[in-house]
TrEMBL record:
Coiled coil: none annotated. The gene is hcaB. Belongs to the short-chain dehydrogenases/reductases (SDR) family. It comes from Haloferax larsenii. It comes from the Archaea. GO terms for molecular function: 2,3-dihydroxy-2,3-dihydro-phenylpropionate dehydrogenase activity. This is 3-(Cis-5,6-dihydroxycyclohexa-1, 3-dien-1-yl)propanoate dehydrogenase. Its EC number is 1.3.1.87. InterPro entries: NAD(P)-bd_dom_sf (IPR036291), SDR_fam (IPR002347).
């Protein structure tokens, strides 16, 4: 028995990394899957390598592109049961002292447009169809939705915002549409920085990751995190849950991570 048999899911940012792993797991669980992503080359690769996936090239910061993705998904599969908001960018762990004062506004706007507004636009576009099926919304939150030092001064607040979106939408859309999220810890996957911060893709490799900082003492793969997405996307198995954020953080929430002090102390010392 598969948990998502004949369910229809639209996943943003599903052409690579954690999103790609979720796509493949949903397919294994019997779902029909559509993917909205801004990277045409990765969409082409996904289409070649995963039979039956509907790929849609578009930008999550555009309401028109989100609405088009929903429309194409329904045209192809007949309905929409699950919307997974997953597309995101990183800030390369930039601290406030290291962020050029002239770039703060542009960097903030670009990252929050993708990481926060993109989720709202996707949910808004999907809502009319999800209301018909009493569907589910699943967002990708982060351990940075609860803790510091899971990114920089832009990324961490953006992921805190996702926790608020989950709770508010769960309140607004109950009882028709359930809204939940998965908060992964370390994921060995590429994340692009915003264009204003250089636009480079970055990845913390298994060799660079110190698993001993976390109680589970493992180096996870993107595939390790897909189970909670399946649970929250499943009509039957997520029935009593809305406003829930599953913290798959390798145990960080029960220990925390001790790190060296940031550069703020230098600024205080130097009087800058």
């Amino acid at each position: 028995m598969t948990w998502l048999d004949k369910q229809v899911a639209l996943i943003t940012g599903g052409a690579s990394g954690l999103g790609r792993a979720v796509v493949e797991r949903f397919l294994d669980e019997g779902a029909n899957v559509a993917v909205l992503d801004v990277d045409r080359d990765r969409l082409d690769a996904l289409e070649r390598e995963c039979d039956g996936v509907l790929t849609i090239h578009g930008d999550v910061t555009s309401l028109d592109d989100n609405e088009r993705a929903v429309s194409e998904t329904v045209d192809q599969f007949g309905r929409l049961d699950v919307f997974v908001g997953n597309a995101g960018v990183f800030d390369d762990n930039v601290s406030l002292p290291d962020l050029d004062a002239d770039d703060i506004g542009a960097s903030f706007a670009e990252l929050f447009e993708i990481n926060v507004l993109g989720y709202l636009l996707g949910a808004r576009a999907a809502l009319p169809e999800l209301a018909k099926t009493e569907g589910r919304i699943v967002f990708t939150a982060s351990q940075a939705s609860f803790n510091s030092d899971g990114g920089g001064i832009l990324y961490v607040p953006s992921k805190h915002a996702i926790a608020g979106i989950v709770r508010q939408l769960a309140f607004e859309l109950a009882p028709t549409v359930r809204v939940n999220a998965v908060a992964p810890g370390y994921v060995p996957t590429e994340l692009s920085a915003t264009d204003t911060l250089g636009g480079d893709r970055a990845i913390v490799t298994a060799e660079e990751f110190d698993a001993s900082n976390h109680p589970l003492d493992i180096v996870p793969t993107p595939e390790d995190y897909t189970g909670p997405y399946v649970l929250l996307a499943s009509r039957e198995n997520s029935r009593p849950m809305t406003g829930t954020i599953i913290r798959a953080d390798l145990g960080r929430s029960v220990r925390g991570i001790t790190s060296v002090a940031g550069r703020a102390a230098e600024f205080v010392t130097d009087g800058l």
